[in-house]
Design a protein that fits this description.
alpha+beta, Barwin-like endoglucanases, 6-stranded mixed beta barrel, two-stranded antiparallel sheet, 3 helices, 8 strands, globular, RlpA-like_sf, 5482_t:CDS:1, RlpA-like_DPBB, signal, Expansin_CellWall
């Protein structure tokens, strides 16, 4: 391949790569400029538990009666300042065995594996009986 032809091929590859990146960027949720393993509308599955929220990783206080959720560490990302994580305040729709709930992301669950969530008691009550303790769920960003 000649030097001129190689330059054209490299230019085309760069243009296609940038076009793909920019067109997909609108559907991604970003943390510190990096996609957080999540795309709006994509459905995730895992298990849900409940916890007593307080001062969350997003820097806000929440109560047991609030419809809030803590997301697992892998999908939380690694922001320089957790209080300014771009997923803080985002809403997700969680479907469980007996119903569904829309909850606001306010915290990170450090021990939760990818796909898992920790909901406030009131939010958990909408998707399952609290006596179940841990249930299979699907969820997505709204």
């Amino acid at each position: 391949m000649t030097k001129g032809r190689a330059s054209v091929v490299i230019a085309i590859v760069l243009i296609v790569s940038m076009t793909t990146l920019l067109s997909s960027r609108n559907n991604n949720i970003f943390v510190d400029g990096s996609p957080v393993l999540a795309k709006r509308g994509k459905t995730f599955s895992g298990e849900a538990t409940y916890y007593n929220p307080g001062l969350g990783s997003c820097g806000k206080n929440s109560a047991n009666t609030d419809m809030v959720v803590a997301i697992n560490k892998p999908q939380w990302g690694n922001p320089a300042n957790p209080n300014k994580n771009k997923i803080c305040g985002k809403k997700i729709r969680v479907k469980g065995p007996i119903g569904s709930v829309t909850a606001k992301l306010v915290d990170m669950c450090p021990e939760c594996p990818y796909g898992n969530l920790d909901l406030s008691p009131s939010a958990f009550d909408k998707i399952a009986k609290r006596s179940a303790g841990r249930v299979r769920v699907t969820w997505k960003y709204l």
